[in-house]
Amino acid sequence: MTLFHALGPFAAQGGVVAAPGMVLVKPTSITHSGTSASLGANGQVTFTAVTELNINGCFTADFDTYVVSVRLNGGNGQTQFRLRASGSDNSTANSYTRQVIYADGTSVFSGRSSANIGYTSPAYGVQRAGFSWHVYGPYLAQPTAMRSVSVSDASSAYLEDYAVTHN
Fold first, then answer.
1. Contact at 8 Å (CB) between 162 and 120?
2. CA distance 62 to 69
3. Residue 37 sits in which domain range?
4. What's the pTM?
5. What is the DSSP string of the chain?
6. Cα 52 from chain centroid?
7. Distance CA 145, CA 135 (A)
8. Interatomic CA distance for residues 61 and 9, integer angstroms
């Protein structure tokens, strides 16, 4: 299940910054390749064995920060993505840069790479897996920053944290 939420603009009140909370964002449409995908009445996207899923109309000029919540029912959750404008994917070489750190058992790894596609942190597991993806300024005419954190039941507790920028 994928749910898009947006954080409203922050307003200073008496020297304290207050946020009005999260707003559910409903994509305007989806298309997919593979077995099945559907867009629910509340904006949730449910999919099974898809090779490509296009979620359209989820980022607007109304908000600067978005949170995407994904829960997986088993399998591997290495999600690749491309940001798109006017229905066209950006697949320019090295337009996505990723910094990663993960912990699996007693092993810790970090790395950096650039590619023509972006990645969210993967969620591997049999029963309990998911990730939260924060997207900062996707509608602004500036580089987009993103961060995703996943957790799953692989190795009892598997954690992966990705920072991604899109030029």
1. yes
2. 19
3. 2-166
4. 0.79
5. -EEEEEEPPPEEETTEEE---EEEE--SEEEEEEEEEEE-TTS-EEEEEEEEEEEES---TT-SEEEEEEEESSEE---EE--EETTEE---TT-EEEEEEEEETTEEEEEEEEESSEEPPP-EESS-EEEEEEEE-TTSSS-EEEEEEEEESTTSSEEEEEEEEE-
6. 15
7. 6
8. 11
In whole angstroms, give the CA distance from residue 12 to residue 125: 42
* CA distances, 149 to each of 29, 114, 124, 167 (Å): 26, 19, 12, 21
State residue 7's pLDDT score: 53
Position 19, amino acid: A
Sequence-distant (≥ 6) Cβ neighbours of residue 143 within 8 angstroms: 165, 166, 167
Domain count, the chain: 1
Rounded to whole angstroms, the Cα distance separating 167 from 15 reads 34
Question: 100 CB contacts (<8 Å, ≥6 apart)?
Answer: 109, 110, 111, 112, 121, 160, 161, 162, 163
Which pair of structure tokens corresponds to residue 127?
């029963």
Instruction: Kindly report, residue by residue over 136-162, the tens digit of the pLDDT.
Output: 999 888 899 999 988 777 666 778 889
More confident residue, 136 or 5: 136
Task: Report yes or no: 56 and 63 within 8 Å, Cβ to Cβ.
Answer: no
